Amino acid sequence: MRKSILITGCSSGIGRDAALGLQRRGWRVFASCRKEADCQELRDQGFESPRIDYADPDSIRSGLAQVLEATGGRLDALFNNGAYAVPGAVEDLPREALAELFQTNVFGVHDLTRQVIPVMRAQGHGRIVNCSSILGFIVAPWRGAYNASKHALEGLTDTLRIEMRDTPIRIITLEPGPVTSRIRQNSVPHFERWIDWENAPRAEQYRTRLRKRLYDERGPDRFELPASAVTEKLWRALEDPAPRARYYVTTPTYVFGLLKRLLPTAWLDWILAKG
I want to staple 85 with a disulfide (CB 3.0 to 4.6 A). Which of 36, 106, 184, 187 is the partner? Predict the structure, then answer.
């Protein structure tokens, strides 16, 4: 019997590549998306694609129910991947922007995970892989909302991993650095909705720094890897007999993982402030 996995956020980027990569390796992939149109596109490509929007609890319940109906009540793995960003200085982030982002990046992930755990307990095995980020253990300016959500996700994931040590369910974190995706382009509508940058104390910095990064056409970031680099680490997290607690992806993740352990906070702040 083929192993089954539910992957969220499969409309593009990491999720789409993971779905394609695991399907090629023989997994039965349930590739979910937030929008029905994206789900239909995946169905046309031969995927089973339930609609799951982390901000919509009903879609989480119904999407998982579709998966379990198709598999006879079993699920070998869950890859929580869906997330988005609201760029902007922390002092300019409205409470409502943070609340809405956390509904997707943290609370929805938690909701789906809690619903999957009883399935894995009942079948006697399972792996839950959460896609965090290098920004789950360091921070970068202008990314406060995303930084905070990934730090929160890592706190929940690390706690769950320790609590589940006495079960056959393995909890794993992926921490990509710069990876090719549409997260920057997808963040623009959220920036325009929530950030009143023209009236902000840092209006000139928005104009000369952040807006150029968001709107100007540009090539890959330094050290950027394709989404397939994450798929390779996901494959290892799913197939390693004794999976690691976390898997780094990209050179910057390894570098900053080391620097965070070695450098005083003031020195690390000086480096991060340049980003």
Answer: 187
